[in-house]
Design goal:
Oligomer: single chain
Largest sheet: 10 strands, mixed
Order of helices and strands: HHHEHHEEEEEHEHEEEHEEE
Helix content: 25-40%
Distance between the termini: 133 Å
Number of strands: 13
Strand order of the largest sheet: 6-5-4-7-8-9-10-11-12-13
Shape: elongated
Length: 367
């Protein structure tokens, strides 16, 4: 036999190491050379069963059964067990509720069980008056939201927090209001916070605090809180603008009137006298600087200067006090800030300045 007559695979496959591998190699060779023949079937073989050997047996799919038993007796027993379980849970919940409701360890017996934090102006008895009906009550039956709202109705309390401390204590934390100005309330002087809330403080306590604020005019207890809050917002903007420069101008103010939102005026000291300065509703710092720059010149020309209106762009209106001696001269003159020798004239057209009679001297109030 020549090499050309041998199967091609023999040149590329290693020699069979066993009889089984040799047989496999021979079968592969015969398949590729087309020498494979169909196997003979027995004479009595059924042709319908020829492909049965290639069919796999189907796997049974398990069916999950429900929780409800299939039998009537099983369903009855399951229902009875469910009723017993629900009854047991209800009984357990009732016992727990009765324990927390009736056990004396969860009752506030004395007022010392109420802790108060953050108060300096409002006294402890004033705060405890809110919880007067809670002594002897179970701690879980105290409406915390209602108590917090009642605390915040007190004038000095801005924000309050009430929490339970098991087994028998309450903790109250409050944030008090911060006064920012004095206000005249009839013949007395009170305090105002930034939201327009009127605050009362005994004179002795006010003196101990050493408050030093301007006196705010134009706010009354008869005004709604929304009106007072809007005016105090304007006041804070006025103070903030004046203090935005190099010096804190607000410490020099004796009185600030905010009754007219379009004309804020203040009393400023000048050589022992207070001068009423009208600032309008904007450019407060620029107008104050212009006033300070020209004040020596104005006082030299008008020794009895009582009011300065800085609201106009091209001129300044000066008001003088009327002398008891009947001294002749104009009560008001109009001048330009850049003019060195103003001529006397009547008050210019436009919004008039406050009359000199309202230029009452009011020293800075200090507690």
């Amino acid at each position: 036999m020549f090499a050309d007559d041998e199967p091609v695979e023999q040149f590329f496959r290693p020699a069979a190491t066993s009889a089984a591998r040799a047989k496999i190699t021979q079968d592969v060779s015969s398949e590729r050379t087309g020498s494979r023949r169909p196997a003979k079937q027995p004479a009595d073989a059924d042709p319908d069963t020829e492909d049965d050997t290639f069919l796999r047996a189907r796997r049974r799919i398990p069916v999950r059964r429900g929780l409800i038993p299939p039998t009537r007796t099983g369903r009855i027993l399951a229902a009875v067990a469910a009723v017993i379980a629900l009854g047991g849970l209800f009984l357990l919940a009732t016992l727990i509720r009765n324990f927390f409701r009736d056990d004396p360890r969860f009752r506030i017996a004395i007022s010392s069980s109420i802790q108060i934090m953050g108060n300096s102006q409002v006294t402890r008895p004033e705060l405890l008056s809110v919880f007067g009906s809670d002594l002897g009550r179970n701690i879980f039956y105290i409406p915390l939201s209602q108590r917090r709202a009642a605390l915040e109705e007190l004038p000095w309390v801005e924000h309050a927090t009430v929490m339970r401390l098991l087994p028998d204590q309450l903790r109250v934390a409050i944030t008090e209001r911060t006064p920012v100005a004095f206000v005249r309330q009839g013949n007395t002087i009170g305090l105002l916070d930034a939201h327009g809330v009127l605050l009362h403080l005994p004179p002795a306590a006010m003196a101990a605090k050493h408050y030093s604020f301007p006196v705010v005019s134009g706010i009354s207890a008869r005004d709604p809180l929304s009106v007072r809050a809007a005016r105090m917002h304007l006041y804070q903007q006025f103070i903030h603008d004046l203090d935005s420069g190099e010096t804190k101008v607000s410490t020099q103010l004796s009185e600030v009137d905010i009754s007219d939102p379009e004309d804020i005026w203040a009393l400023l000291p000048a050589q022992g006298n207070d001068i009423q300065v009208h600032f309008g509703d904007s450019d407060f710092l620029a107008r104050y600087r212009s006033y300070q720059q020209h004040l020596p010149e104005w006082r030299q020309q008008y020794p009895h200067l009582a009011s300065v209106d800085m609201r106009y762009e091209d001129q300044v209106v000066l008001d003088m006090t009327k002398q008891a001696s009947g001294e002749s001269g104009p009560d008001a003159v109009s001048t330009s800030p850049n003019q060195h020798h103003p001529a006397a004239a009547k008050h210019p057209a436009g919004k008039p300045a406050k009359p000199a009679a309202k230029s009452t001297k009011a020293g800075k109030t200090k507690g």
